[in-house]
């Protein structure tokens, strides 16, 4: 494996930042200023391994963009950082009044919350109102927005909005934002009502997700062309200070944000949570002034940047886990520096999907189903966990991960089975044999069988290519690879242009149906990247969505997972074990499965040196 070094731009930026600080200090000393120097800005430095796509809530779905959006925009609700199991709490609005068998929700917004400045406000303070949330939700239905997360609202069945969207599509006229609909409407300046066509017991979770329900201001959006990714202007704890695409994002404290307070309720027996709650209770959020986010795709530069104390928090790349935390304990050299560790299984599922509309691997006929099941059986998931994930992943038995409703820890299925002999037998049985003697299997009609798997140009993606190549070689199936950057791949995926893609799905809410959305036919081009369509599955999905959490609903989710296993539109490999390292200067960090902007709740030690 090639050894790479830190990217030059990352180091140059670091050197220039330090040089600028030194020059500023020297100039101050030369001037002989008598006034005390202002306190250095509290800065937390983090990294992501993939690029962002933008920061307009209805237009994004990737994890990096969602994390930044969570800091720029406010959803009505949020999560308690320390409560386990996870619990909703008020943010800009109180918890909703729920009535009419989970079909009516009334949110009451706190007065006195303001957007950050923008020329569209003409120099006047701009207060957040109920109408802003009504407009923001309607944007998801506007065809011009092309929202990849519209399914959150479509699945809940907000009344009247699908008809407005259909009218705009059929007439090719602008979406009518001003026509009142029962699905979402302002009752007065500070209250808005949401009504659904069927019971939606978990809809409040959607309103705790800034990437799906963050409030934008209409006058800001309308000051830009309708097909443009709108610059972020929100009420969140931070605002965007600078952005170099796919390289560096800098956030600064939003002075207009005054409603965030650290008031968390840890679970019984959670000693760490109790200590954090006692230390920070009542403190205004955010507690840091600045967040510097570096996009570093390769794993070794991320690891070296943390060792060099250029990063404050790091999700340890799996290949460095034995150096970081041997035997799940912080390495002695790091412990001496005061580095701390946090570890948990996160609700994410790593998978490869098969495009059901693709002529090579798609279709629901027995031969095509047999092909996908054979490919899934032939893939060496144990080796992926061992060699690519370095043990930092638990095997998946379905696409539903731990930490969400409907997960069955007792399930053992074909999804988690590695059996190349059985894969060969399935291929032989359905006519996928070598018909021209070139050593590779052909399709039943004699045409070539050649797979194409899309991945990214990263070290880990190359390792996954090697896993798939060896697994397919072992059963005589030819496979090629299509390499592209994440933003380009996701665009092609939504358009149905990829045959297979090695990717993943991370839970935005603690709900198993979020993963069933991967297979729901109405979500094609959005969550349903495989473009799977099966009426029996759709019916199970619709039924479970209307039920409150409990055994009856769990049984339906598990029934849906059995259908997914039978048709195999996804080959799930596993669920990540995240090991975080935290520099001693960072205080109060606890990972949360659904709070994306984890820097919102942290502080920097008062005696910590400036970065």
Reconstruct the topology from this structure.
Layout lengths: L7 H24 L11 E6 L14 H10 L4 E3 L8 E3 L6 E3 L4 E5 L21 H12 L9 H6 L4 H11 L12 E5 L2 E5 L7 H4 L3 H4 L4 H4 L16 E7 L3 E6 L17 H10 L9 E6 L3 H9 L5 E3 L5 H4 L7 H4 L4 E6 L2 E7 L11 H13 L2 H8 L4 E3 L24 H10 L20 E6 L3 H16 L3 E6 L2 H9 L5 E7 L6 H4 L18 H11 L5 H17 L2 E13 L3 E2 L15 E2 L7
Helix pairs in contact: 13-15, 14-16, 19-20
Can you tell me about this structure?
It is a single chain. The chain contains 20 helices and 20 strands. By secondary structure, the protein is α+β, with helices and mostly antiparallel strands. It has 3 domains: 1-18 and 40-49 and 261-345 and 583-611, no CATH class; 56-225, Dipeptide-binding Protein, domain 1, CATH 3.90.76; 348-577, Dipeptide-binding Protein, domain 3 (Roll), CATH 3.10.105. Helix 13 packs antiparallel against helix 15 (420-429) and helix 14 packs antiparallel against helix 16 (459-474). It starts with 7 loop residues before the first helix and ends in a 7-residue tail after the last strand.
């Amino acid at each position: 494996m090639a050894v790479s070094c830190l990217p030059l731009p990352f180091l140059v930026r670091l050197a220039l930042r330090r040089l600028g600080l030194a020059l500023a200090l020297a100039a101050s000393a030369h001037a002989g200023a008598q006034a005390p120097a202002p306190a250095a800005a509290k800065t937390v430095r983090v990294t992501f391994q993939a690029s962002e796509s933008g920061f307009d809530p209805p237009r994004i779905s990737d994890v990096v963009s969602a994390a930044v959006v969570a800091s720029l925009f406010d959803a009505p609700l949020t999560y308690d950082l320390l409560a386990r199991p996870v619990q909703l709490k008020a943010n800009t609005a109180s918890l909703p009044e729920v009535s009419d068998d989970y079909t009516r929700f009334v949110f009451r917004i706190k007065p006195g919350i303001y957007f950050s400045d923008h020329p569209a406000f003409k120099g006047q303070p701009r207060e957040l109102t109920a109408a802003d949330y009504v407009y923001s939700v309607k944007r998801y239905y506007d065809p011009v927005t092309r929202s990849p997360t519209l399914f959150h609202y479509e699945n809940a069945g907000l009344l009247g909005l699908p008809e407005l969207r259909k009218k705009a599509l059929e007439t090719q006229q602008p979406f009518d934002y001003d026509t009142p609909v029962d699905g979402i409407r302002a009752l007065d300046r500070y209250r808005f009502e949401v009504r659904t066509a069927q019971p939606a017991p978990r809809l409040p979770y959607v309103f705790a997700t800034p990437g799906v329900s963050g409030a934008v201001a209409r006058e800001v959006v309308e000051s830009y062309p309708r097909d443009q990714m709108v610059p972020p202007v929100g009420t969140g704890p931070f605002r965007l200070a600078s952005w170099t695409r796919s390289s560096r994002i800098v956030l600064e404290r939003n002075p207009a944000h005054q409603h965030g307070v650290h008031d968390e309720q840890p679970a019984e027996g959670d000693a760490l949570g109790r200590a954090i709650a006692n230390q920070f209770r009542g403190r205004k959020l955010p507690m840091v002034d600045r967040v510097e986010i570096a996009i570093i795709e390769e794993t070794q530069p991320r690891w070296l940047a943390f060792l060099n104390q250029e990063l404050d928090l790091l999700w340890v790349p799996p290949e460095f886990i034995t150096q970081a935390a041997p035997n799940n304990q912080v390495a002695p050299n790091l412990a001496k520096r005061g580095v701390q560790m946090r570890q948990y299984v996160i609700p994410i599922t790593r998978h490869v999907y098969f495009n059901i509309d693709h002529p090579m691997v798609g279709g629901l006929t027995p031969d095509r189903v047999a092909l996908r099941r054979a490919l899934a059986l032939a893939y060496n998931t144990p080796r992926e966990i061992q060699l690519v994930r370095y043990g930092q992943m638990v095997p998946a038995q379905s696409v539903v991960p731990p930490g969400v409703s409907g997960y069955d820890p007792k399930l053992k299925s074909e999804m988690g089975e590695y059996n190349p002999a059985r894969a060969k037998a399935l291929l032989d049985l359905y006519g996928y044999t070598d018909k021209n003697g070139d050593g590779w299997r052909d399709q039943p009609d004699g045409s070539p069988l050649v797979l194409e798997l899309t991945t990214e140009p990263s070290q880990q993606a190359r390792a996954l290519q090697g896993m798939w190549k060896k697994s397919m070689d072992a059963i005589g199936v030819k496979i090629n690879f299509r390499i592209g950057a994440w933003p380009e791949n996701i665009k092609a995926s939504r358009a149905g242009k990829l045959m297979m893609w090695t990717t993943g799905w991370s839970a935005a809410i603690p709900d198993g149906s979020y993963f069933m959305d991967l297979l729901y036919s109405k979500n094609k081009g959005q969550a349903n990247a495989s473009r799977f369509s099966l009426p029996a599955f759709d019916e199970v999905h619709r039924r479970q969505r209307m039920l409150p959490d409990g055994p009856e609903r769990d049984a339906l989710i598990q029934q849906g997972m059995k259908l997914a296993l039978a048709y195999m539109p996804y080959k799930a490999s596993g669920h990540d074990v995240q090991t975080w390292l935290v520099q001693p200067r960072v205080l109060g960090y606890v990972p949360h499965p659904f709070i994306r902007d984890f820097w919102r709740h942290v502080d920097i030690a008062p005696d910590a040196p400036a970065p």
